[in-house]
Amino acid sequence: MAKVFVYDAYTNKMLHYQLSESDPMPYSYGSTLKVGEFRGSSGAAVLWTTVAAMEAWNLTRRSYGSAIPVGYAFKRIWEGGHGTTSQHYAGVAFDVGQSLGNTQRRKIYDTAVDTGAWGYVEPLSMTPTWVHFDRRYGTPACPNTTAGYPTVRRGSRNTYVLILQDALNALGYSTKTLDGSFGTNTEKALKALQKDFSLTADGICGCASWKRISSAVVGIGRTSTVIDK
């Protein structure tokens, strides 16, 4: 069983479900994306995504017209496996088609581009044996990039807050919960980390804080302070 958070930007609500590995992902089209496929190699008990990412998946899957094998989708930031600003940690990225041939991957790529539903579809020259697309959202906190995470602060609610809470907890700065809502405890934990990391302790996770936190936490593995329920 897994707890699955789904952020709905239309209502600014964080929905949650208790699902088995064989259940379809919430908001996904039919049984085209099951929880186990979305999880991939992640060993975490709590997963997350967004309604918008599932809608982009639905449109791509319908347009493609047949199964799209998912190699990698979700990862928790402390599990690593991707870069420090990876959208896989936000639950909105898919690496697909690893088991297919070049012609089929080209068709998936063209389909993903044609839908216009994804925030980013990586050029095939950068992904020779898979297709990457993601439904990133928000304005990156760091200037002159499209790859980073947006600034989050008290009152924010989204899967980037889940990344921040997850990272803080893994590093030993307890947010008391893992819920995607930036409240008092998350702010206190962030301020404590910022002070220890010689950052401006303003309780706002912007460019400098994201860089330091991500660099410290990506791939460190499950720690005793991770919240996974």
Automatic annotation (TrEMBL):
Q: Name one Pfam family in it.
A: PG_binding_1
Report the residue ranges that make up the Peptidoglycan binding-like domain in this protein: 161-211
SUPFAM superfamilies to which the protein is assigned, alphabetical: Hedgehog/DD-peptidase, PGBD-like
How is this protein named in the record? Peptidoglycan-binding protein
Organism of provenance: Candidatus Gemmiger excrementavium
